[in-house]
Design brief:
The chain is of the alpha/beta class. It has helices at 24-35, 94-108, 197-206, 231-247, 255-258, 264-271, 351-371; strands spanning 12-20, 44-47, 117-125, 128-135, 140-150, 172-175, 189-193, 212-217, 277-279, 283-285, 288-290, 296-298, 301-304, 329-330, 333-334, 340-342. Strands 1, 2, 3, 4, 5 and 16 form a six-stranded mixed β-sheet that branches. A five-stranded parallel β-sheet has the order 6-13-7-8-9, with helices on one face. α1 links the parallel β1 (12-20) and β2 (44-47).
């Protein structure tokens, strides 16, 4: 199949469906929508604000190797291309492999993703939902669609908790999206905050590079029994995500529900005392943090690996925020705006969850179009 260069959009356009975001979730839905009869580029417009392919993966730090990620699942439609992440070189940076595979996927299936095009607002208008966009050159456009699939992920909205004195700290503060490499912290005293796999990865990379590391977490880290994600606790964590999404609550962290699988690399870090979590500090001051028992820990830098929130800022004109602080979503569809689907949200927020949901969401979207 060919990969025609997308035609520039007219100032205003009508599309049957707009998909916001070309990560795992957006690509999965777009693939199924195309199979169900929509034509990419006209009926179906896929937009992504990032400069390249790979969704959030393109921005991950170089040292994150494919073999160190939990597991990146194949997109639907990859098998027919003979493409499998399992066959990829696991020592390569995950961002390069995922970026390359997604590019080949988009080309093969002719999805005509338009990038970098940021969606700035989605609003209700006569005839559907209006999607306002801005391209890298500053050009703005409006697309009116019968349905919108939001698959914007979380990378754009890292969450950093507040601690007294945080604004007085004079060292460097970075969040997960800003971390580039351990070398930037060579010879420094580094505090890492957060109980998930990003924090663990940073600590392992900083070992032997930073002068010292201390690791603070809100809850004690629960290590899973094996090296794979425990299926039972993963199912329970997904169910909790689903409950929160249905109730319109802020989504809980996934890792808090599953425990952290202990790979060989993590086992080594545990055995060597690199991974020793402590209860989170109570305050920060200009040159460090103060622990619960009053110890002052000097820090040149604090790395906040404290998770993400769903990036839904462009949906603000739809006024979907509930009194519980989240958006009510049932089976991937907004309760308060049924023409809006949220792919990769809540229970779908993993590469496998996003994959499975892609097909179902595409069917729901098509059912809505036919009905109208
Ligand atoms: P994303 O990959 O974030 O894609 C969203 C896309 O939407 C992006 O390309 C973005 O540019 C675009 N976008 C956002 N807002 C707009 C807008 N307003 N306008 C236009 N475009 C927009 N999951 C796993 O299953 N296995 C793992 O090993 C794993 N490792 C992870 C490691 C880290 C460090 C992190 C942070 C997460 C990890 N995850 C992992 C979770 C992983 O991020 C998701 O599984 C998957 O990438 C989510 O896909 P997505 O399509 O929902 O979002």
């Amino acid at each position: 199949m060919t990969d025609p260069t997308p035609e520039p959009l007219p100032d205003d356009q009508h599309a049957r469906v707009v998909v916001i975001g070309a990560g795992q979730a957006g690509l999965s839905v777009a693939y199924h929508l195309r199979r169900l009869g929509l034509t990419p580029g006209s009926d179906l417009v896929v937009l992504d604000r990032a400069p390249s392919t790979g969704g959030a993966w393109q921005f991950r730090w170089e040292a994150l190797r494919l073999g160190w990620a939990h597991r990146v699942h194949d997109l639907p439609g990859m098998p027919e291309m003979g493409l499998r992440f399992e066959d990829a070189d696991r020592s390569r940076p995950a961002r390069d492999v995922v970026g390359e595979y997604y590019r080949r996927f988009e080309q093969y299936h002719g999805l005509q993703v338009r990038r970098p095009v940021a969606v700035t607002a989605v609003a209700r208008v006569d005839g559907g939902l209006q999607v306002a966009t801005r391209s890298a050159d500053g050009r703005t456009q409006r697309i009116v669609a019968e349905a919108v699939v939001n698959a914007s992920g979380t990378w754009g909205t890292p969450f950093v908790p507040w601690y007294p004195g945080r604004d007085t700290f004079t060292g460097r503060q970075v969040d997960t999206t800003e971390y580039r490499s351990a070398d930037e912290f060579a010879g420094q005293d580094v505090v890492v905050v957060g109980g998930g796999t990003s924090a663990i990865g940073f600590l392992l990379e900083l070992d032997g590079v930073a002068r010292s590391t201390r690791w603070f977490t809100r809850r004690p880290v629960v290590w899973a029994d094996g090296s794979a994600l425990d299926v039972e606790s993963a199912v329970a964590a997904v169910a909790e995500q689903d409950r929160a999404a249905r109730a319109g609550e802020v989504l809980p962290s996934i890792v808090s529900g599953t425990g952290v699988p202990v790979s060989d690399r993590i086992r080594e870090g545990l055995d060597h005392g690199v991974l020793r979590d402590e209860p989170v500090f109570t305050a920060m001051d200009p040159d460090g943090v103060v622990t619960r028992n009053g110890e002052h820990v000097h820090a040149d830098a604090v790395i906040w690996a404290t998770g993400f929130r769903a990036d839904l800022r462009h949906l603000a004109p739809l006024h979907l925020r509930t009194e519980h602080g989240g958006v009510a979503v049932v089976d991937g569809q907004s309760v308060d705006e049924p023409r809006l689907f949220l792919a990769g949200y809540g229970p779908q927020a993993s590469t496998i969850g996003a994959n499975r949901a892609g097909r179902r969401t595409a069917r729901q979207v098509m059912a809505l179009l036919v009905r109208d």
